Amino acid sequence: MRLFVHGIKSLIRRPVKTLMLFTILFIVFNLVFTGFIIENSIEESKEYIRYEIGAAVEYKMDYEAAMASGERPPALSLSVAEKIAENNYVKDFFVTESVNASSEDLEPVESQESSSGFSKNASDFTLLGANSEIPIDFAMESVSLLEGSMLTEENIKNGDYVVLVSEDLATQNDLRVGDTISIEKAATNNRDNNATSSTSASTISEEFEIVGIYSALEDGYSANNLFTSLTVTNIFNDKVGSDETSASIVYLLDDPMEVELFKEKVSPLLTSEYHTLYSNDDTYESLTSPLNLISIIAKILIWVVFIAGAAIILAIVTIFVRDRKFEIGLLLSSGEGKGKIISQFIFEMLVIAIVAFGISVGTSNLASKSVSTWIVEEQLTSDTGLASSTSTASNSIMNRGPGSSRSSTSVYGDVSMDTVADEFDVSISVAVMGNLLVVSMVLVLIGSTIPLTVIMSYNPKRILQD
């Protein structure tokens, strides 16, 4: 305790040197803290982007790679898809196959697309076959059950001819739960890359019982989508018992932050270089590229200032130790242990560092907010900033490929650079405060270690004689 009291008095007796060390620590802490806070904010923004995109991963064909090679890629494998679904990260697993369908009993609902001639579907209806009782459109809340019931596990297993129709379609055709409608496979010319034959005429027609009516929750959702089981669509597509598929295969994970780890773990299961696990990577990379560049700058700032600050503190503490050599000699001559003397010097450094730390946290937070404003206005939302030099993500047909989206539902969240900029936050949390404190103490100890160890070599008689 006496040494600590002596340490406080020593700081008071040397106000100029104390102020000098405080100023150095204050400047170094501010620069390091600002870089650290910005870096932490960038990591939180990247997490925000991943959470907004969602925890969906598609097992699909890499059509760009296949077209570049000029080869015909093998079809996706249902057995591989099921193996991937066994991974612990997977919460839900959806396989959705589609069939272009028509019906003599039904009048299709005209949408803006179909009435203006921009519809890409050559048939009146799309029969969507799901592998689960809750199709992905319902799971993603694009639609909800209005009346009746969903398909049961037995319906799916047995391939029962049951169907769910939209509220608009039911109203237009005066349909109710329990009614029967005739659905046939529409005449199409299959041009999929995996196609081995074309269909020029309708070959299958079946009577379906309406077991449920759904309501669309998203604007623009096609009212002509009809939901049935994957078993039924496989019958219509003559794929019963086949391992090959052109269906949409989607995995929903528990946590969006597990997406990359999941892909890394299950990628060895893929059987072709033209098969891929896609998680809207183009959007994620596009939005995080400018953040990564800023992160690199922040990390360089942190390390340069950290190393330079440690070197400056090292020089200053060395000067302080030399100036107090006579004092150290007297303490050693009076019987004080070298360890206690070193503890006193460390205590003095920590007192100055804690005061500098407390003030630096507030000032660096203000500085970080100014830097944050510059990042948002000049780099993320500016036409001349880093974000503008990054290619905009695209979910084009080329990127998605046939089979990647067989309905109107998107499995990914909607996020843009504007929303990222709005959410960019540099506030200091308790966790960040703890990290800053650790960085501060490490910086002080590194800068103090070498000069304080010199005390261990001091001989008190030699010091007093000098």
From TrEMBL:
InterPro entries: ABC3_permease_C (IPR003838), MacB_PCD (IPR025857), Macrolide_Exporter_MacB (IPR050250)
Compartments in which it is found: Cell membrane
Organism of provenance: Clostridium grantii DSM 8605
Topological category with respect to the lipid bilayer: Multi-pass membrane protein
Regions crossing the membrane: 20-38, 300-321, 341-361, 436-458
Record key words, sorted: Cell membrane, Membrane, Transmembrane, Transmembrane helix
Domain MacB-like periplasmic core positions: 63-266
Protein's name in the database: MacB-like core domain-containing protein
Main location: membrane
